[in-house]
Amino acid sequence: MATPESNIGEHTVLGLDNVPLELPIAGAGSRVLAVFLDYMLVGAITVVWVIGVVFLATLVDGLRGGWGIAVGIAGYFVIDWGYFAGMELALGGRTPGKAVLRLRVVSRGGGSPSASALVVRNVFRSVDLLAGLPLIASDPLARRLGDRIAGTLVVHDQRRDGEVTLLRVPAGWGAGEVAVAEALLRRAGDLDGERAQALAGRLLAVIDRTDPGFLAGVDRAADPVAVLRASLTSRPA
Amino acid sequence: MDYARFVEQRRPVWDEFDAALATAREHVRRVGHTELERLGLLYRQVLHDHALAGARFPGTGAARRLSGLALDGTHFLHRERGRGVRGPVHFLLRVFPAAFRRQAHLLAVVVPLFLVAVLTGLVLTAVRPEVAGVFLGPDALAGLEEGRLWTESLTSSVPPAVSGSGIATNNMTVALTGWAGGALAGLGSFYVVLLNGFMLGAVIAVTAHFSLAGELLGFVAAHGPLELTLIIVTAAAGLSVGRALVVAEDRPRRDVLRDAGRDSLLVVLGCLPWFVVLAVVEAVVSPAVSVPTGLKIALGLALEALFLVVATNPFTTGAGHE
């Protein structure tokens, strides 16, 4: 399976048949935000646990007094040490905080880490609370101590929905022009309407110049973004 | 091949792989051999398309989609192999002893260090009894002067269930932190060993100074030997991580560190259940004045012997890397 090669960059691993895969490594910002969300959840779970134990103690005689407190302490220990490893084991390398930020723990080769790797990386969390952030910030692979010892990485889950691929390409266009047109069509909904129309108009002008017959028969009076989309993403008749 | 034709010809494969992957993820247990074989074939095609798109059409929508598909496929289809633990009994009888044996040589470093710390605490506190106050606090020292051990207030004011739960979680936290601290070039493990050794020496000396050593023995006899053994063993496990960080020999440091981390974790996990047993003993048996000291000593030695038998498991051989 994949092994990192020094001559193809640290973010790249070699997949099947030595096909290079670029790992979208998550940086310090998204990881800190994810862990912040997770600790908020740990706090909420702990509060619910305490309230639950107190409530149970009012119903069950055996839990009144010492045993109730004992169960409370044991449960808190399990939440404190088990939340992160348990969630990552149950959710395929994600905690709820990571899921919100679309992050995932993977092995060094990009595959699913073993259960022991997930446990190891999280037992070192206590040390990483002190030393983790500088380690993440200074490492090209953004690994904290637990990641280094467990052989894991945290990567972004790439969003594939809404991806636009052109089905018609004007003559003379290379990958750069295709990428620009696809990016505009993908993000047109997020842009200011006039700005999107202006950009689409400029691209249509480029098409007119490079491949004059490409837009033949297209109604140019319509919204430039719609014209561009119809002419580039519809199959040729 | 131009971009439009590439997308037109290959997109059905990408769509099929995307759908098959989503289905397999949703029903991972129901993926049959045929589906898996098809998924593998599609994965291989997607990888090749990804390589082509990366080289010929970088930055395009097709290249981005293929990159995402290739990464998702790699994550789903490549699973890192673990140690193959087949349940808690198999772990305790085979995996834990094998890991313990592999790490045992580090006890030759930790045990002498612990004894030196005990001796230092013993001598320093014998000369200056107030040294023990640093760990025990002024109230405990005042109690010793009045002929009372500090353990009396701990065990009389708190129900055994509470103290047992607190002791177990505290000891496990110390063990886990000491082990994880080993990754700081072994400093965390050294700290735990030296601190516990020094405290033990200081406590023995100060109770002897106030002629209460017999009472202390009565309190710690049942749980003390194994508790100290567990702290030493988990610290040695942490030291193996620190050693891997410093001495990688001819292997890549990350590989040595990963192997040491996982191997030593097995030792720590094997020790955790014993902390629970000890907590019960410490909360129920140790403070009980009705249990004779001789019986407590016998229980302490029996627990120690049982742990050593389980940890070394002389009845099985082999590396335990199933």
What features would you describe in this structure?
The complex is a heterodimer of chains A (237) and B (322). With 237 residues, chain A is mainly alpha-helical. Chain A has two domains: 28-156, no CATH class; 175-233, no CATH class. Helix content of chain A is 56%, strand content 7%. In chain A, the strands form two sheets. Chain A has a two-stranded antiparallel ribbon. In chain A, strands 3-4 form a two-stranded antiparallel ribbon. In chain A, 38% of the residues are buried. Chain B has helices at residues 3-26, 33-56, 61-77, 88-103, 107-127, 133-136, 138-145, 150-157, 160-181, 187-209, 213-220, 224-246, 253-285, 293-312. Helices cover 78% and strands 0% of the residues of chain B. The model of chain B has no long low-confidence stretch (mean pLDDT 84). Chain B starts with a helix and ends in a 10-residue tail after the last helix. Chain B folds into two domains: 8-77, no CATH class; 88-312, no CATH class. Chain B is mainly α. Chains A and B meet through β2, α2, β3, α4 and α5 of A and α1, α2, α3, α9 and α13 of B.
